[in-house]
Fold these 3 entries.
Entry 1:
Amino acid sequence: MVYMGNEKLIKDISSGARYLLMLMSRPLGLVENKIKDKNIRDFVNISSLSERSVIKYLSELKESGILSSERHVIFKKGRGENSYTLHEKFNLSMKHTEIVDMVLFLNDLKPMQKFIFITLLSSSDDFGVVDGLGLVGLTKLTGMGPQTIKDHLMKMIELGFVFGYSPGGNIEIFPSKVKGMFYLNLVKYESSQLKIVLLEKSLPYNDIIKYHSQNNEVNSKVGRYIKNLSPKSKAIFFNSLTCKVDKFSGGMLTKIVKLKTEINLVQSFIDSLQQNVFKIDGGRVKTVNYAQFRKHLSNFNFFNYIKEDIRKEFLHEWLDNPSLEKEPAHKMFPIAKELSEEVIYLVHLYAFWMYFDVLLPDGMKFAVIRKCKNGSPNEELKSPPCILVGKPISQI
């Protein structure tokens, strides 16, 4: 969640000035919109900007009316210090304040890369997954151009600060533009609430493209729709679908591990899957009977709230769309409805597949993410999924 104050004023200043304003807007040292007894060197230390850049951006903020200053000359102690009054703030929701403090004092990242990381962090969940901001939103907040952000992201992936980035795009089955997803690497940081661990064991499944191209269980409407897509639209479709399945699979996996010992129905379902659906050899899943899993799932009426969340994710824009009766909306809605049911099936399939394939500790939270290779954004999500394990500090 982000609050930008007067968006028009913020929009007119450079990305460097926004970065400095963001740091000045943080609660530390800020009392009633005033920052007292700070000199240029203090801002250089916290921002990693050069002294020349700090002076430049402070002047820009003053000229825009966002900032005013009052000089306090200290007798026989040089240039003195200033008090600054912020007339507008650039507040980011800092729920990861401990991580922000650590990032600000890193030498590996350039100032604008820190700005991007902190901006993404303000919109991320506990695992560093950013869903809903997208490249357009990040551009709007930071003031940097899309290509500049992509170049910085590539370097941050290479340095290990970002696991990956999946771009969004426009495709008619989704009424509004699909926003990209970012996967921040929070493994190296330990907050007071959660310690994130990357499960290095690769998961060679959860391949949405392979599933839809090779599995006869795919519904006919969805299958025909995919076949008629252009290569570019097909890439957007599979990127978006994979990200959504990954997101819900992580949440589903958390529920399975938590409830298997609490609710007999869940444990009975797990036992039935192990006997009739998943063939396990040497601790790994070797084959899956997709038809049997679909049959089992149709008789399993648990986790209905997750099913409703998935339907809402895929259908709420269509249901709220007054043009649903018009072309081409009325043609897309049945496909979107069928696709939402397909995603429910896939989320359950992959969550239970991961449960059987990987030894997972009890009492933890899980997220499924994509880790890019070779320092490049994951344009086609070809890399296998990874599991992030969140260990509550109280259990460590």
Entry 2:
Amino acid sequence: MSEINKNLPNKSVYKLVGKLQDYKWGGNVFIPSLLGQKVTDEPVAEYWLGAHPNASSTLKVNENKLVDFINTDPKTILGARVYKRFHRLPYLFKVLDVKNMLSIQVHPSKPQAEEGFAREEALGIPRDAAHRNYKDDNHKPEIMVALSDFWLLHGFKSSEKIKEILLGYPELHHLMSVFEKDGYEGLYCAVMLEDDEATLKTLKPLLEELESDFDAGKLSKNQPEYWAVKAFRSFCSPDKIDKGIYSIFFLNLVHLKKGQAIFQDAGVPHAYLQGQNIELMANSDNVLRAGLTSKHMDIPELLSQVKFCETIPNVFEGDILNDNHETVYQTPVEDFQLSKIELEKNERFAVKSSSLEIHFVLEGAIQVNADDYLNLSKGEAFFTIAGCSYEILAQENSLIFKASCPL
């Protein structure tokens, strides 16, 4: 028996402790309160549950890393089909508290990530280099479910709405001919590749004019102008305007209500603006940024990955299964599946896992019965290995989110 698990009981279900991330855009109340921790002035942006090599969760019983535990017998723990397809846990499960805007982002497809990663490996660029684009060879699709009112940018607006924006502001009129001639690609490339002086000349007077409406409370969070002014004050200096502000005008502004979901596929430009959510994604760090950030941006590489077309945001609420207790949020990818389990006090939910499944108790208190009993309350997590038959008993009204692999 390996050094990692020789002291573990022979079980198929374990409590799991995640890793906190203190990114500056995070709030400082939601996640500590959820986890029963002390609230301080320091940001707590994300809580990670998974086997990411840079921030693996740990087993509560002995503080061993989940990634190391999996590696003791990956075929059994992950499940034969998941192991054959991915050779590792293919997803990363998160809780996010977005207080301030995140960067405009695009994620590559699997073939694009493989090509980009191989290219940068051949060039000898260190994987932890700040200017590296591809940290690994994987894609990074992701799904989120809102835990509060949540605002984000997601894909390009319709042609009609783009034209309304361009005609609605005199400072943007000169871009109408570009859009009519060269479409989404021509428009976005034009603004992202223009020099900083041109961006300053175009956007600064527009944003300064909008500030008076913002300060007078005339702009709402459901208007792009609101977020444009916030970005102006957060990411810009008197002599330089962040080009990401163009994206605020050109991308769909989506307002999700609690319980609603949206899926972000490869090539779709997007950005989280404000709110709390549960997020599940492929296990990758590949991000190409388009603004609202001080981090590295490779604009030519970004533009080679963007889907230049209208996006109609698909906001959905999932499919109810398993005696009306489980809601599954279906996506087109094999890497992950997100679901939520809702139980009233004394209700039971029984199922058999086909892959390693991670559960997070968002509300309530539960008892898990497999080959042992685990008692969990709000803010705690557990995982089951593949092939585990288990039952959840709600000790009070409870809401649990579950991450799994649908293979």
Entry 3:
Amino acid sequence: MNQSRRGKRRPSRKQAETASLDLSNHLECGRSLAWFAVQQFDENGTFIRDVINDADVPGRFTRAQRGQAVDMASGVIRRRRTIDTVLESQVTRPRGNVEPDLWRLLQLGTWQVLYSKTPEHAAVDSIVTLAKRTGCGRWSGFANGILRNVQRLLQTEQSADPRYLLPTDGGGITLSAAVLPDPREDRVDYMGRAYSLPRSLARRWCGRYSDEELIPLCLQTLAPPALTGIRVNLRRTTVSEVQTRLESAGACVISGPVSESLLLDVSGSVDLLPGFQEGLWVVQDPSACQVGLMLDPQPGEVILDLCAAPGGKATHLAELMGDEGTVIACDVTDWRLKRVQENVERLQLSSVKPCLIERDGNGVPELPYDAVLLDVPCSNSGVLARRPEARWRFSENDLRELTELQMELLLRSVDHVRPGGRIVYSTCSIEPEETTDLVAAAVDHVFGLTLKNQCLQLPNEHSDGAFRALLEWNE
């Protein structure tokens, strides 16, 4: 045997077909960047924006290409289960026999055909071209055929049969075939496929909500946030002054549901807008602003923010009490506290003191805290539109672990607050186990802990979904 050939066997055909492509060497346009971002999310769990930020070295992509990548990758992740349902109706071979990167390419193409404003010919041709440029010309014929079939599914007349209708804000996309299951036979399967929800979440929501409540909620999770909420730093400026400056820079600005908030309709990086670098405002959803208002901090108080990063709520507390007092802003890693410190410095606040603590909660300074803000890690079920990856991270096992952690943190908060002190428990989940049920269980468990007020808010066009509860503890 020729010794030079030992150890250099060619991979089998099956191995060659299932190995992931090195797409990082083919980032030439917005579509290729989107393909790479979806691949990295699937294989490593990396958030879409983190992949795009890391790949976008200065000068590599135009603003339009970056925006296209975010829109495509986020759109595919949001609509993935619906897209897969459509594709499975057109692909005759078993899903397991289609290379993962080819399937992701088909997902991108199907999203373009169904949900984007891409011209009909370009929706398919651009995907075929992308396959060829990436050295996967062998996929081009297959991709072209499948995506043309998806195009042929589209009908102009609206259907009254939900099996033929892909729901959208505008009413729906009518297909020529019954792609979706019949909701009368399996409501959970229909809602999961029509609104791209994992089965566990679809089952939960179908059990809690009527169609009149559930359909608007599901549609809201699929709508990319059109508006960005900001909180004005009232210590240094006024809402009207900030609005005037932003409008003069070309931003569309409307008043928010909270007195110090505004809603921006902008594209691109908001940190380039006037007033941001000066610390006149900070990005914060109105639902998050409500948390600080519920705690109602007073000048001179000592307040503990137990899970502070990136610092939006801690800095809001400081602003509400006129920067007179102390906010101990805790978190468990240096890099998370660095984000808190950056916001503190930009907003020019002196009362916020970042503090590194251990993951088990040890290390919190022993002070007589007048109030504790506890914004817990959660399932993110109230912010699925803003965080497209969150729906596919949801699981019943993770939820059980999260609720154990949330209860532990809430009980620790009681240990830190002085008698007569206040605790605000907040989360961007809308699941009962993380919200109303958990707070009720804590009140039953802890002597002297009373519930003063609580609010569960479903996501809407102006605000994320969220929960907050005000508690008081007395010996």
